[in-house]
Amino acid sequence: MNNGLLYFGGLLVVVLAALFAVPNFVDWNGYRGVFEEEASKVLGRDVRVGGSVNLKLLPVPYVRFEKVRIANLTGQTGEPFVRAESFTMWLSGPAILRGVLEASQIELDKPVLTLAVDDAGGGNWTNIELKAGDMPFVPHDVALRSVRLTEGAVAIYNAAAERVALIDGIDGELSADGLKGPFRFKGSVSWAGAAHDVKFATDVPSADGAFALKVSARGDDSPTVYMLDGHVSDLSNKPTFKGRWTGKIAIPGSETTTPPGKAPPLLDLVSDVTADPLGAKFEKLALSLDDTAAPQTITGSAVATWTASPRLDISLQSKWLDIDRLAGAGQGSASFEKLKQLTGGLMQSVAGDSTATAKISLEQVKVGGENAGGLSIDAVRQGNVTHLKTFKVSLPGGSRLDLAGDLKNNAGKFSFAGNAFIGGSSFGRLKAWAEKSGVPIDFNADGSYSAAGKLEVDDTHFALTDASGDLSGRALAGELKILRGDRQQTDLTLQAADLDTREVFPKIAAALGSEFRRSLGLQKLEGAEDPRAVLPGDVRLRLIASRLTDGDTTYRDVDVSFTIENREIKLPVARLTTQSGLSIELEGRVETRDSGPAGTFAFDLTGATPEAMRDLVSKAGLVAVLGEERFKGLKDGKIAGLIRLGLRAPGATDVTFDGTLNGAHLNGTAEFDGGLAGWRSRPSRIRTALDAPSLSSLLKTLGRAPVGEAQAAQPARASIVTVGIIGADADVRADVSSSDFKLSFNGHSQWPDNANLALGGTLDFKAAQFTDALAAAGVSLPSGAENVAARGSLDIGRTGPDWTIATRGFSVGTSTLAGNVTVKPDADAMRIDGKLETDRVAFQSLLAAVTDARPAPPASTPSDAADDAAADAQPIWPEGLFNFAALGNTNGTLNIAFKSLELSGGLAAHDGRMTLTLAPGKLVLSDLSAVAAGGQLSGNAGLEKVSNGVAFTSTLKLDQAKLATISAAGKGTATIDLHAEARAQSPAGLVAVMTGGGTARLADVEVPGPSTSTVAQLVDDVLGGKLQNEQRAISAGFAGALNSSKMTLGNRELALSISDGSIKLEKFVLDSADGQAEGNVTADLATLGMNAAFQLTSVVRPLPPPAIPLANWTPPPPKGTLPAVVVLYDGQLDNLAGVTVKTDVANLQRELVVRQMERNVEELEQSRRVDEERVRLEKERRKKLAAERAAALEAAKKKQMERLPPVIPESAGTGNSSAQPALPDVPSATPAQPQPPAAASPGATAQPGAPSDQQAEPRDAAKPADAGTGNTVLTPNISIEPIAPEGGSAGDPNTATGAVVIDPVTGLPIPKPEPAVRPSTGRSTGAQRQPRRTSSDEVMKSLGGGFQ
């Protein structure tokens, strides 16, 4: 078209050159019509000069026409074919002199060439031709050395008079050797709003009018270069161009400037072009980018028509395209802004008012640093609106983006309105890809996803409406609107059945939470971002979800509206329920002023389950301050209240609340002068009270675990009042009271930030149940510790994490305690150390702290009551299961000094010390040292929780126990070593399965108890007739003898064994001359019941030796042992005075019947022999006595004879034997020597009281030695009378003296013989002879038979 301009400019030069012949002094304006007419003849068109005409020859010849117009014959555009503001031509003087009109320079100011194309492909230029003018001065040959164009333009119209193209800003220089060329142009041209440096050149047209054309254009601010190289034919009618279009094209939307030393990426353009006035075809179109590792090529074709309906149809294809590279990201990942620039550049590159279609198919693209699937675009542009029929692009991670709608270009500002869909199999991959492209997505989910809705986007707003989709299987719906302005406004409505803020808008959710905390005057959580930096200006949020997960908390039935407008936060409605069932309703409006928030929030919290109540205290922030354990007793509750922010005073917060907890009424107020954030550091006043129907329910509500709940329900109240600065110094009073329980603390507290609560004060209490007092303090003992009262005062102090407790007048049950205890928390554990002194410690009390109460027995019946009355003693050990919950994670050491350590009743140790060590699941008693039974008790014992119960181990030693302390009759000492172990689930169970052993070392021990000598004496009494041989009599006699009987154990060591809940003393045997004693002693450790069984087997003491030695006498052979006597002791170790004794002598009594008969026989036989011996001895004595008397008489006679006168013979009548006086018995001058004792068997002993000589006793000389024993068997009394010296024959029995003579053979009296001649004394001889009795008769008599 520039060629045509030059052509027509040349024609104008020829026409106007003729005017130069007019003299300079002529007023050329008067000749305007002439010039116009002549020019019209030459051009064949009307030419008009609307301005002045100037012609000068000196100093430089030139001619000037202003406001020149060349008519458009078709008139379809309403514009002249050519118009220019001015036409100035400088002529060459020498050429004029030669008769040649040579324009040295031509200037066209603001020339405009209007080209109109008709339906046939011709145009308004077809009838232009140069004709010869009528004026003689008009030259026939014109040379164009320089045609200067300024602000020129070319407008192209179609047959419908619609402008289809405009080339303006033409500034350059055109030159030609003649009016037919060749032509050359160099200058700047603008189209599509961009300036280009343009050059073109032609050759001289051939005979058919065709000529070669070369055009190059380079953008001023771009490295883009276009080149056309081809031929133009039939220019005057229907011009046609065929050639090749090449170039270097800057990527649309890329940076126009590049860093030094770095060339911008350029696309190589190659295409075959065929063009005419109706349109153009671009075939074999190829765009390639060769400066990459993998060459990229886009191929296709394009067809442009600019007829009545201008249209551009483009079709492009590519196997692979690096969009990141095209967007200027090099080998990296293109940012979203780069991609946006690329898209805008593409849109701008095809901008126009005509219709255009584009079909783009890319099989694979690299975008955002990752390879993705294909890109398919089917778009139609109509004016500034591009309708996207199809826009499908595959994104990384198996994602796909579909768009359908209208893309508008409004003066370079783009907008889109249509439908959008995006979906894929991995949202995580999409997010990572988008973030690399500079598009942060506030989603953290992974897995499949999809979203669809109506999308509207422009420079000022973004709207996604009627949106729905799913994310990781969770359905979503809602809309998002963003309005950009001075303050960005974001409206978000989101509906979901299941929503997780960790996946969906996590940053926005955290920012909203931080903003809500800020509205309450709370400090920002550590690590939380500034919400104002996250939230994009004002935010209106409406969230509706069946289930919402926010961090670790899950809500259901969520309906929340939240608005942030500048500094105002509104909460029109907020209803949600936690997963545990806590219903939360909030409503309020707060303005965040510089002095702090100002406004109100109303709340209503309802929880019907313990889990819901845990959520309540957690949401209220109480768990973070006081810990969760304090609220574990909450079962249900409903609390409503009002938070007033900044109304009483700037920065102050006042809270009022009222409701119920576990059925107890709760109410209170809290005034914080420094707001909720300054509750520690600024003055505050807190008052709260809780009224419960019973102490048990009150303690449960306070998170304590009462041990017993059987007491009658009495109203109970707990209250706390604090006044002052909690972090520095605050007065504290806390009270818990009921009918039989009072606890009151008065003191001061100090609770600085990041430090433990410091506390000091006095705790006074009085409790019928000590377990309730401990429960109120947070110590829960098992139910085995019930029914123990306590009262007193404790001085309590806490510094840092450590607690100190000192007692004052403190008593528990029947024990009084004094001492100090220190409690030190250690991580998740607790350390307790202390020193205590007490007057009494009971083992059962120690065990009660780690055992539950015994399960209640079933309801008893009358028969059960009878059985219970007859039952054995109950175990002294608790039967409840072990429960080490009270120890928890406690470790500790308590040094305890006691006056009495009691096991049961009188079984106790005194004045001792011990160490009690506590550990989780473990209780150890060590370093025991005390006085017991006059000796020293030492040892240790331990309980430890194991997998199948509790393991018990113990080692005890009782050294030098004095038996006299146990029994007044006891003597000696005992040292006992004992070890035991067991494993069970209760103390009673431990004792029942306990095993172990030990030793008992005895020294000089003598204790009350049965002995064989007692039994032997009992047998002697029975055999001797002192005790009736009858079972009841023998048993009573034996029982009486046991009162004074003693058992001598001496020095010995006995083994002890423990099994099956009993401790047994090793069976011991005591041998003595009287027999053997065997003993077994057992104690039941469960009941402390003791039983001992003794079996005494005695021998019958031998018959005493005869009173006088017997020749060839041997004691009777020993008989077998007698049947055993059984002695049973039964009683309690803690009450030895109450021991009962049972004996069994039945077998002994039956045996004694036989032994008694044998003894009688032995005694009779011995008596017989003794009698015989005595008779013999008596005869010998008498014989000797007679001989001595005879000798003495003889000597006396002899002596007398010596003194007397001579004997007168009898015959002289002087002798009279009867008249002679009897001489007295003259004792022997020499006493009779005792006879040596008869030989005796070994072991025979002389009986005390036996005579040492054989002199006859004056009386009872013949009485046996055992006559005084009271034998019931009749023993004849035998007496030996002295034989008169005169009056009978020596050796004859039954002399006149009347003495009874004993038969030495039978032992019976010999009857007196009847004298043959009656004595002269005249005594009666009427006594009859008695029959002779034998020893058999005597035995029969003793048995009740035989002779009387």
UniProtKB/TrEMBL annotation:
Chain segments annotated as coiled-coil in the UniProt record: 1147-1190
Domain AsmA: from-to ranges: 6-191
Record's compositionally biased regions (Polar residues): 1269-1278
GO cellular component term, pick one: plasma membrane
Highest taxon above the source species: Bacteria
Keywords on record: Coiled coil
Signal sequence annotation: none
Low complexity: bias regions: 1240-1252
Transmembrane segments: none
Disordered: annotated segments: 1193-1348
Protein's GO biological process: regulation of protein targeting to membrane
PANTHER family linked to this entry: DUF748 DOMAIN-CONTAINING PROTEIN (PTHR30441), PROTEIN ASMA (PTHR30441:SF4)
Protein name as annotated: AsmA-like C-terminal region
Organism per entry: Hyphomicrobium facile
